[in-house]
Amino acid sequence: MSMPTLEPFSLSVIICTRDRAPQLERCLQQFKEAQTFRKSWELIVVDNNSSDGTKAVIRKFAAAAPFHVRYLFESRQGLSHARNRGIAETSNSIIAFTDDDCLVDRQWASTIVREFSTDPSLAVLGGRVEQGDPNGQPVGTRTFSDRKQISSFEELFGRMIGCNMAFSRKVFEVIGGFDPLLGKGTSLGSAEDLDLLYRALKRQLTIVYVPNAVVFHAHGRASASSIQQVNDEYAKGRGGFYWKHVVRGDLIIAKRAVGEIAYLSRASLVSGNRHGARPSPSRVLRNLAMGALYRLMGG
Length: 299
Hints:
Blueprint: E1 11-17, H1 21-30, E2 41-47, H2 54-64, E3 68-73, H3 79-88, E4 94-99, E5 102-104, H4 108-118, E6 122-131, E7 148-149, H5 153-159, E8 164-168, H6 169-175, H7 192-202, E9 206-217, H8 224-246, H9 251-271, H10 281-296
Parallel strand pairs: 1-2, 1-4, 2-3, 6-9
Antiparallel strand pairs: 4-8, 5-9, 6-8, 7-9
Helix pairs in contact: 1-2, 8-9, 8-10, 9-10
């Protein structure tokens, strides 16, 4: 399905945050270095019920920023609720997302606007995610250097990620918003981005990975336990995502789920506990099952 041309090409960048004031402050300051636009864009920061100094950080930044900054408070816990709130509060034609622990490249915003303004069919854009912590371990990176139109679930899963994605506003009118039973702040902890992107793919909307739209993921996680926690959340979210779509008769996702379960089952028999720094196959299997169970029970 092609998307209609949208004029003017106004941009809203949405950052959702909770109790990570130091990371957020660093993230916001990076936008002062970005190549952006005087009148046609805004930065929306959604405070998802923080109890630290988040509000003060946003207010201070907004007072001195050379562009429009909006503070929103969303009391309903969960990244999907926060993202949906940001979408509902703007009428701009392009809506982009990054995370509070990411640093945008100087040309990130201008690249997004240029891509949508030159391709009337473009519905969803994903970009490159580089490691932003010199001493940290790569988490959620997407470092492909080639431009690619996404046409399969495997390409979507391998290239697209929620900390660097942008949408034509019309996408949300066609497929709806983020699923509040998925994502950070829920029992599942992830996959709200994967779910939304997959729904766009199923509707045959134009999705393109653009390597020139770059963010740096400065997540600050260095310990093995913190990396393991993220991997656990990814697996639980994926299990919930699989369950959601399989019970609706989606054969593509059913095949993907069966394939992953079969691979992990074989790997757990072969490797036992010899898995090095990677999550053990049995642990991933357990988290997939927990995610499916959480989804069955309604989150």
